Amino acid sequence: MKVFVIFLALVALAKGQFNPYYEDGRTVMAFLMDWKYSDIALECERFLGPKGYAGVQVSSPSENAIVSDPLRPWWERYHVVSYIIGSRSGTQDDFADMSARCNKCGVRVYVFTIFNNMGAFPDMVGTAGSTADGPSKSYPAVPYDSTNFHPSCPIQSYQHAFIVRNCENEGTPDLDQSQDYVREQIVAYLNNLISLGAAGFLIDSAKNMWPTDLKAIYSSLSNLNEDYGFSPNCRPFIYQDVIELGKEAVNKYEYLPLGDVTDYKVSYSLNSIFNGNKSLSVLATWGESLWNFIPSKSAVVFVENEQNEREGFYFGQVLNYKDGKPYIMAIAFLLAHPYGNPRIMSDFDWTDSDQGPPMDDNQNIISPTINKDGSCGDGWVCQHRWPQVCSMVTFRNQVGNSNFCNFWSNGNNQIAFAREGHGFIVFNNNDGKLWQTLPTTLPAGTYCDVITGYVKNNECTGNSIEVADDGTAEFIIYSDDPNGVIAIHIGQMLE
Question: What's the first-to-final CA gap in the chain, in angstroms?
């Protein structure tokens, strides 16, 4: 009997880190990049929770080096100098308050964590006095010294796994996670965040660490804190950032046994297609089997993230909030299609690729203001609030696990497909008008196009679509439509 109990415990341990613990009917997380914890808590209460978001990813909470040239760039928070919870986003108490308030709203908190490396620059001093003093690699607030790092070497080739995992990523001192002491410090840091209500972690630069070391770290983590509403014996959700597009020594499949994985090929495929490099008709087969994507259940997917939209990794700039219609269509497709576990990027406005979040004269992050139309001000873009985006979050929640079917295309840049019995979506990326009668699989009735409006007092504030008794409906999207999308689902049907 004892052996059986131990076996069940090991099964729970193995499977737990693949579970994000989303509340039923919620399927999408948002990354509120560089938001203050107090603002995230408020946003959970006034928007993320009511709009059906499942989770919020927060920026690295660790004390980081202060970069003065360029002044306080977005990547400053990648340069960790200790595991103290203290940054421009707030303190440990602020973090705990945010977790409690977000969890009460059904929104789980996931933490961007950095422990492949420490901060790289000798002239940077953290807010608690920790320093990275160049070759000595001394971080007294952890503490780490030079013996806790791999020998200095640049990553000159991604064709050798040893170099990728033991050398310095972009010049940052590379921690040796094979050491018990280093693992203990990392586990203590992550367990502290778990005690403060975190539901899981994005593991930055996972490809730069040995899977065996990560497995040891993950297996040593505490269960989630029941004081924040989690059931007993819940393991933290793990999703690992692995930039891999093929022909490299390290590949994303090596990390699948350990947790979910970010699939950058999804981002670059959507960029290429919705930018017009390929026709939308190729999306008929889009998904894991023919596109070399990782299995859907294990994939965290996005149109863009904070790095590839700014730095143009590998294949040049990807779609972002500046791109208008193609960007909106790409997000709508990602959220309408059943593949993967989507994350929405919520950004601040930037004109320079180094630019950090909006700040005052004392370099404190400025809180976003909320305009009368629900959009953000004071330099915040807040894509998660865009009506076209949050309405598609609701679409995805509504269609659930329903079948992907009834794919139609004109052989070029007009497509449509159904989520059987629950939703239907149409795209026009052609220069000409789309005018088609298509089988929707939906019950007869009047539906509100959620891209342009919603049902209010049994009327649609946007465009209406009539579904006939045979399940067909007529769709018209003009070439100059600012969104290029029509989406309907049974949750926005007039009585």
Answer: 56
Q: Give yes or no for a contact between 356 and 76, defined as CB atoms under 8 angstroms apart.
A: yes
Q: Which of these, 454, 459, 463, 443, lies nearest to 494 by C-alpha position?
A: 459
Which H or E run includes 431? none
Secondary structure of residue 486 in the 3-state scheme: strand
- 199 contacts 227 by C-beta, under 8 angstroms: no
The Cα 440–Cα 465 span in angstroms is 11
3-class DSSP state of 219? helix
Backbone angles phi, psi at 146, to 5 degrees: -60, -20
Q: What residues are paired with 300 via a beta bridge?
A: 262, 341
Question: What is the dihedral sign for C-alpha 155, 157, 162, 165?
Answer: positive
User: What are the strands of the beta sheet with 80-87, ordered from one edge?
Assistant: 62-64, 80-87, 90-91
d(CA 182, CA 256): 23
Q: How far is CA 409 from CA 146, 392, 413, 455, in A?
A: 59, 21, 7, 29
Residue 493 is predicted with a pLDDT of: 97
- CA 337 to CA 137: how far, in whole Å? 46
What are the residues whose beta carbons fall under 8 Å from the beta carbon of 323, sequence distance 6 or more? 275
Q: Identify the CA nearest to 463 among candidates 390, 375, 391.
A: 391
Neighbours of 247 (CB within 10 A): 8
Residue pair 110/55 in contact by the 8 Å Cβ criterion: yes
Q: For each successive 10 residues of the chain (495 residues), what is the average pLDDT?
A: 41 70 98 98 98 98 96 96 97 98 98 96 48 67 97 93 95 96 98 98 98 98 98 97 89 97 96 95 95 97 95 72 97 98 98 96 98 98 98 98 98 98 98 97 98 96 98 98 98 94
| Contact (CB, 8 A) for 145 and 133 | no
**74: which 2 tokens?**
């977005």
Predicted local distance difference test score (pLDDT) of residue 2: 42
Q: Are strands 376-377 and 404-409 parallel, antiparallel or unpaired?
A: unpaired
> Length of the chain, please?
495
Distance CA 430, CA 424 (A): 19
